[in-house]
Amino acid sequence: MIQARLAAYICDRTRALAALSHDLKTPITRLRPRSELLEDPQARAKLTKDLDEMETKVGATLDFLRGQESGEPVRPVDVMALLDRILRPQLCRVGTICRVLTAAITALVMGCPSVRYDVPRPSSYAFDRPAETFLGRSYATQLADTPGQSGFRLLVPGQEAFLARAALAESAERTLDLQYYIVGEDATATLLLYRALRAAQRGVRVRLLIDDLYAVGRDFDLAAFAAHPNVQVRVFNPFLRRGPLGISRLLEYLGDSARLDRRMHNKLWIADNAAAIVGGRNLGDAYFNVGGESDFADLDVLAAGPVVAEVSRSFDAYWNSEWAVPVAAFVGDPPGSAQMDLVLSRLAAGAERFRESEYARTLRATELGRLVRDGRFPLVAAHARAVYEPPARTGAASPEAPAQIMSVLREAVEAAQREVILISPYFIPSERGLGVLGTLVKRGVRVRVLTNSLASTDVPIVHAGYARYRGALLARGVELHELRPGATRSGSARPGLSSGASLHAKAVVVDRKVVLVGSMNLDPRSRLANTEVAVLIESAVLGGQLGALFDEAASPDEAFRVELTERGNDSAPLAWTGREDGKLVRYSNEPLASWWRRFISSVLGALAPEELL
Prior knowledge:
The protein is of the alpha+beta class. 43% of the residues lie in helices and 17% in strands. Helix 3 (41-69) packs antiparallel against helix 4 (76-110) and helix 6 (158-171) packs parallel to helix 7. It is globular, with a radius of gyration of 24 Å.
């Protein structure tokens, strides 16, 4: 049982670590700024020197792992030798440094390392008069000819998704409500938080709700951010023990996995209860296509109109639940003015550096931000509703409870007449889902799936769960398309669902007229453990747009078509077809996947039960 829990913990950690660019340097990055809190100059200098040496060694490890990704041959003994020579002594040093530094920081600002539940937790709710705000009036004018309908715009390129969030923060007059699974510590996330802080300085109330899986170790920074009188920060389902490197979390997880498996996977950016962004993107460079090797092909939708009030109700349900704990519960005394100024100055400095980047200069050349700020961003009018899981799963939902995403999804899919398109980075359908899809094909519905290949996935261990179903899916007539790794594709300048190194978009399209876009993956974690949020939209225009994006992403230049070598025989070997240099090429094994990925998928994938993947 402990082995299964450990595998599940590794799986969850791997998913988000991949989203943060597989960065083994994260502990070092977090410790560097906090070294400034050490008063002794000699201790500060020694710590800086040790961190420099650690960064060099970890860099060597990353170079080695990248070599495995490129497919270079390696012997297992080489792996063990590397771990023994580089990682073990460096991890020991990390542990020593963290013990010393954490003790110093604890004495200065952090206080007790466990959670205090006696902190005030007042209830608050979305602004109830959005029509009085500039955003509310502007988008209401655009939707005036379609009463009762909401307005939508797909945000496919990462640059558009980033600009839309920044623009909504700039235009907000009353409230900003932000709910995320991951908030990175990189350029784009820093600038977006800085925009939120600037809004707070204008008098806007800012509520930030973040899942604790990747908030642990950032309590001080989040508390300093929340020190502004107009900013509130809460953490969902916190670990009781805090620590920068996660050792205490791992031990706690092994003993309390039933609770800690419940992660808040929702992703919302809401301004004035008048406009909202819903979709698959967390806050971080990889989601906004800054240009790193780990960029994601992702998808959001900008919404305005009546559906935003429903999305805000979902945020309020989480914010006011017992699962959401104010960040003040994790620190002793509130951060002093010096510490608060240090954190806020880092935000400002990061934002300034970002403004001088080529990425930012490219963004300034577009009009999208101004259109969103002015409420003139063209929207598609459609009937829609928000669907979300309650903060705590209590079994079968009552008639008064919000509709659960998977039941809504199944109802929409089973009503299909011609075609079902499923887009998910992690696709593990379950035996029940397999039966639903097979039944659709039997009555003439075309079922098409776009997911990651083993070579493109950011979580090889989860790919193992999907691989178990490929033969059965294909034997039932389901079409499978697996995204090629980004570096090997043709490189079309047009952004789309294949524009990143790895697929991260989550969407379902039924008959190209019903669309579900949100945070949910089509896998056991989203069905059984995570909380999720999505919007169900009835729109032939959006359905046609997403269908066209799928067609492009599923082409042989962008994805591998998976087939059985013996039609109808789910035990037959698989074959993958793609286009190389203008010619169709057929593969008999996981194409372009390195030895390292095959090892991770087959060995670690076998440890975790399907329901934990």
